[in-house]
């Protein structure tokens, strides 16, 4: 026995060490926990159990997306993604149609004027717009300030350069639309104080510049993409409270689609159109709409097609006359005339205004005359002196989609999910109310 021990002692020591190491380090077959966990502390055991739970969770999630086990699950996910994209496109189309302001002719600079003196074209457009608005307001027994907010560019002022003429013409189109809305609402006095510089609105979270590093002397601004531009202006009004409320409601604008556009075969032009909104939506006779098209691939780059005036109103639709002078096509260019011809499915808008600020001050009424019996015969009613900041928006032509977060930044509204619901009716339009 002693001889056997002496001959095999190294082998016995090695085998004993291996068995001891196997017992100590190898996980328990029942608990799957290493026996050393109790020796090294409870933290290792807790971390081990947490990792095991996460592994089981990841394994179960991977099984849900395994193509070999559940191909129908992948098809369902693809269908949901397709439906979400469809709803996003519908909401996007609705908001672009509701918010956009499209300048109409003669406030669109002709191509032949771009090479000449566009500043003189703006001067002529300003003079014509002033004459039209003074006549329009006089027929409705209201007053408008003659400068229209363009005092610095008037006859005695500087002739604008070509770089700013496009913006000035757009501001003039906005001014004419707003003054007509005030006159139709019986606002007693309207004055456009100033047209402020346009303000690019960036995607949320990209307005601030990134913080420069300590070893850099120049700050680095974060590259951002502007998806629309705001064109603000300041006005002053004198009106009664009912007239002011009527004006604020009309600033929301009306949006429609061209339901029918019959072609006059003799003159080869559209003389009247049918829009898909009527008296139930607030349309009245003599309301004016701008018709525009949307190019595939460039949904935020509207193409101006003409101007129409409502002549007959029905509950759910209306008929409008096409103003021939407002058509953008050249009668001697048949190809362009055909491409810009008003067609069924085109878009129509009366213009959307975003109210930024409203300040009001009361103007008490008074009795200015009485008859022999002391009965008032000339009374000035209570009025409001209103200072208002409002704006219109124009989209970046390169913008391909609009998210709910971007729209809420502009309108202050939240985009509700349309899943499982019918498409929103025409009455559920975007409205940016005044902030009193």
Portion in helices: 25-40%
Cα(first) to Cα(last) distance is 107 Å
Measured on Cα atoms, how large is the radius of gyration?
35 Å
- Form type: elongated
- Percent range for β-strand residues: 15-25%
Which structural category do the helix and sheet elements fall into?
Answer: alpha+beta
Average pLDDT works out at: 76
Order of helices and strands: HHHHHHEHEEEHEEEEEEEHEEEEEH
Number of strands: 16
Structure description:
The protein is of the alpha+beta class and about 425 residues long. Among the domains are: about 95-205 and about 225-255 and about 355-415 and about 430-435, no CATH class; about 260-350, Elongation Factor Tu (Ef-tu), domain 3, CATH 2.40.30. It has helices spanning about 1-25, 35-40, 40-65, 70-100, 110-115, 120-140, 160-185, 240-250, 335-340, 405-410, and strands at about 145, 190-195, 200, 225-240, 255-260, 265, 270, 270-275, 290-295, 300-315, 320, 345-350, 355-365, 365-370, 375-380, 385-395. Strands 1, 2, 3, 4, 13 and 16 form a six-stranded mixed beta sheet that branches. It has a six-stranded antiparallel barrel with strand order 5-8-11-10-9-12. Strands 6-7 form a two-stranded antiparallel sheet. The protein starts with a helix and ends in a 25-residue tail after the last helix.
